[in-house]
Amino acid sequence: MDIAGPFAPVLLETLSACGAGAVLLVDLFTPEARKSRVGAASLAVTAILFLAAWFGMEAGGETATLFGGSLVLDGMAVFLKRTFATAGLLAVLAAIRYEDRLPRGRGEFHFLLLSALTGMFLVSSVGDLMSMFVSLELVTLSFFILAAFRRERPESVEAGLKLLVLGSLAAAFVLFGTAFLYGATGDLTFAGLRDHLASLRGAPPSRDLLLGLLFVLLGLGFKIGMVPMQVWVPDVYQGAPAPVTAFLAVGSKAAGFALVLRLVTTVAGPGTKDSLQLLFTALAFATLFYGNLAAIPQTNVKRLLGYSSIGHCGYLLMGLAALGPASYYDESAAASGAAAILFYLLAYALTTFGAFLVVILFSAATGSDEMDDYAGLSRRSPLLAASLTVALLSLAGVPPLAGFFGKFMLMRSVALTGPAGFGLLVAGAVNVVIGLYYYLCLVKRMYVHPPKDASPLPVTGPTAALLYALTAALLILGIFPGAFVTLASDAARAAFGVGG
Amino acid sequence: MEGLGFYGFGALTLLGALLMVTSRNPLHGVLWLVVSFLGLSGLFGGLGAHFLAAIQILVYAGAILVLFLFVIMLLNLRPDDVERMPTFSLRGGVGGFLVGVVGFCAVVGSVVMGTGAFAKPVAGLPPLEAGAADVAIPLFSTALLPFEVVSLLLLAAIVGSVALTKRRLP
Question: How many domains does chain B fold into?
Answer without folding.
Answer: 1
